[in-house]
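We treat protein structure as text, and this decision shapes the records that our systems exchange. The tokens are whole numbers drawn from a learned vocabulary of local backbone shapes. One such record is reproduced below, unchanged from the form in which we store it:
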Amino acid sequence: MPAMVEQLGYLVAAICFILGLKRLNTPATARSGNQISGAGMLLAIVITLFDRAILSYGVIVAGLLVGSVVGLWTARAVKMTSMPQMVALLNGMGGAASLVVGGAEFLRAELLGEQLPMETGVSIALAILIGAVTLSGSLVAWAKLQEVMTGKPITFPAQQAVNALIFVAILALSAYQLATPEALLWPFYAVCALSLLLGVLLVIPIGGADMPVVISLLNSYSGIAAAMTGFVIGNTVLIIAGALVGSSGIILSQIMCKAMNRSLANVLFGAFGSTAGAAGGGRSAEGLTVRSISAEDAAVQLAYARLVVVVPGYGMAVAQAQQQVRELADLIEKRGGEVRYAIHPVAGRMPGHMNVLLAEANVPYDKLYDMDDINPEFERADVALVIGANDVVNPAARTEPSSPIYGMPILDADRARSVIVLKRGMSAGFAGIENDLFYNPRTSMLFGDAKGSVSRLISEVKSL
């Protein structure tokens, strides 16, 4: 294939990636953004297959078929509530691909006795390091999300010092490998093993409350690793795609950290949630009472409300109640009420988790409101219906300087005329502290599984 045609094709693919990423900015255009990006990736793959020296097209086709079948099966079989786990695994697979390609290129040069240029050697070392960290870190994130292991931070004495020592050892071994002309493979395998270990150690001290940031950050790592792999094999479009993923992931991570009023360093190294409960951050519930409400009484409030603001959280995701929530909203609107959805940037277990779930239930995009847009509306809302959300509606973030979430921007659900909270029990959220909203005189608790509770509300509203 002529070089000019190749570069032109890669340029078109890169433009597709940029346009697709831009259209992911809003739910209304996200689907077409995915399609445009997918078309760009298909073009890049076709050009690469025609341009590169392929050892066996049979193996390539077999890989495409297996990957397509696995991808189609997971897309259809994995529930929306498990999407964070799937995203974590996909991030890990991206890191694994970079690790394998970088490692294969290094081993090829070593076994053939080729002297790698310094810039190629550095790119290989970075692809291996970042790819391995992404792989093992993503597997730990998956295990935490899937509750295979505890979602609480796992810490040990001198943890950061150990991590720093491992990182320095990786750099030293990589430098030694690049500077040594002899074909020594043991430093390569040592770097791979230490990088995988570092990925585990970096993620285990991060608690469940910070999983959205972790997933976004690991996605960024996978992009950076892909860009390094692009430098290794001299593939322009891989460099561009990796840079886009890497930079967008970092930006999204910073946006979510801002939404929690915390720094990225605090998320990564602060072990948030490991001591909050023990430390008693926030107000004690001793002497305070909650007011429970029946489904019948809650239905009356909702049926005659002029404005209802729904605040979805992880509890809605676990109960898979999004379809019932949409049905309840339709009933309220048929009776002349207005329903809006308040979306906190870090609600759920991954970026945009609530948006994805509500989109699955065909909730109109124009009814989803970001935190800054919906907060002024709570004061005129007749009912704030909180479904499985906890820390993101905790007024302690505004009023309790001793609280670990103090200063975190929250949804102002407590400012509605009436608050109905759907929750299984009085357990604390990821931050491990009491939620002052539950003890607010205007708050009523409807206990039970979110899906069952919303279904009861639907039946009661229909009977009015």
